[in-house]
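Reader question, answered in our methods column.
A reader sent in the components of a multi-part assembly and asked whether the whole thing could be modeled at once rather than chain by chain. We filled in our standard form and ran it. Here is what they sent:
COMPLEX SIZE: two components
ENTRIES:
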Amino acid sequence: MSDRKKIYRLERRGRLLLLRAAVGGTNGQASVLRLLLDTGSSYTMLPVEVLEALGYDTHRPLRRMRMVTASGIIVAPVVRVSWFHCLGQRVEDFTVAAYTLPPGTFVDGLLGMDFLLHCKAVIVTEPGTVQFEE
Amino acid sequence: MGQAMSMREIRDGFAGEWVLIGYEELDEDLNVLRGEVLAHSVHRDEIYQRLLSLKGKKIAIEYLGEIPEDWAVVL
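And here is the structure of the entire assembly that came back:
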């Protein structure tokens, strides 16, 4: 087994780790946004408006999912995006939850455990990096 | 607005705001190198609403203000 690792630096803000991601639309368009790395989130969450602008119908999702948040239980639509790219990893046909975080969060969404597990990410909190096996 | 600008020019011109950038070029970390500012506002939700009228483009959403070091989040 190779022990070569590819390392990506995260943006550190206080005790939080931020990164940039890109998501593909239904017709060649794409959006680039800033996410909060959140190991407490089962799913990657992107704003409803971003997904709708990319051509996804959040009113007719794959399914709706109940999620426990710090402010209560929400029901969020789940949609499949054509591709999701983050930290040098591109995943085709990736499912995300559509949910717009409250204003004042400075980020557009959350990078959740679904992506981190899929890519077998190793997070190093200090200095703030993510490693992947090559 | 209406012309391609470097990211440094965009940061200087729209400091403290949310902007939608029709990007021409990104680096490998997905940072915008050059693009056109399509909309800007101090209110994030105005930017998100504007996004809905710009379907079909390659767009980066950028917050160009300072993120406080003591910013705390519990989701």
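What stands out: Chain B has a mean pLDDT of 92. The first strand of chain B starts at residue 4 and ends at 6.
Send us your own complexes using the same form.
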